[in-house]
Specification:
The chain is an alpha/beta fold. About 50% of the residues lie in helices and about 15% in strands. The chain has 12 helices and 13 strands. Bound molecules: flavin mononucleotide.
Length: about 375
Amino acid sequence: MPAEFISVTFPNESNDLHPQPQAPIDPAYLQRYARTLDDYGFNYTLIPYASSSFDPFTIGATILAHTKNINIIVALRPNTVYPTVAAKALATLDQLSGGRVVVHFIAGGSDDEQAREGDFLNKEERYERQEEYIRILRLVWSATEPFDFDGKYYQFKQFISNVRPTKGHIPISLGGSSDAAYRIGGALCDIFGLWGEPLAETKQQIDRVYEEAAKAGRTDRPRIWVTFRPIIAETDELAWVKAHKVLDQLNANREKGLSRKPVSSAPPANVGSQRLLDIAARGHVHDRALWYPTVTATNASGATTALVGSPQTIADSILDYIDLGADLISIRGYDNYNDAVDYGRYVLPLVREGIRAREEASEQAGKDGGKKAAA
Ligand SMILES: Cc1cc2nc3c(=O)[nH]c(=O)nc-3n(C[C@H](O)[C@H](O)[C@H](O)COP(=O)(O)O)c2cc1C
């Protein structure tokens, strides 16, 4: 499977640098953003979920209606939709778009955030429920006869769906860094999502997911998705100047109460964010260009690690992760639309060129090996 690129969709111009709290949907912006991603060869766009945010299914339908190739990744918290309903909603979108739908599971990292929509399970239970939910989706998409389900969290009788995914299956992704995330993602999912950590820590997480896949008796492995927020400029020096401006702006927004996490907020409860903060405490720059002050400035609220540099530096850094086995690369910036254009123009072609060069080198090595064996 060749490496593919993921972006993130936002429904209006609000972004982490210039937040516009409670801005309504801007349909023209959404269409332009989605078409730009499509035109520049992004393969997927994530539609994230938060208790206060827009409905990801209708945002997804709009993106699909205005694009030709890009796949949507619908972020889904099991507490928000009954699984048979979600299975049909996803399959409906999939049929409407000729098979351009992926679902990304979020067990929920914060008890307080989950409680906002009536979910009072603890995290362990949320992961347990998520496992049942994923099993139900698979059954709904494949069953040819009415079936019963008798789980701990869901029970129903004689359900059958007439809405099937276009290719028989919709890829299932999961994001998280706790043991339960590795176990369920490794055992059941097609894709496993990570936030940007240094190469050594990323390798450690990939190995954990693969271990769980093997333990579950799988002969295949989930694809690995890794997420960065690149800060790009013509040269490395200019990119570092820009990075410090981004950081100043994030800190100023937080001071003014404009960021997603107020200055007084408690340490995050999800393991993924805790890991990011631990790594941030060990140093600002890791590997070639992975930058952590943006993590600290936002209390690690979601994907917050930057890659800083010229297009070549960013591309080389991404290729390091592709070499490690992460073949789904999520890049979104701090200035969403303009960064997507820059990545599409300058980064995607360089990474794809790097992949081609690696393929040619390995083909050549294969030919040379064959010649030696024949001699
Ligand atoms: C790639 C990726 C995307 C994510 N997208 C979302 C999202 O849209 N909304 C959300 O609440 N959490 C999102 N998360 C966060 C986790 O799914 C969440 O914190 C998890 O349920 C618990 O994390 P833990 O297992 O690391 O403790 C995402 C995580 C990853 C890795």
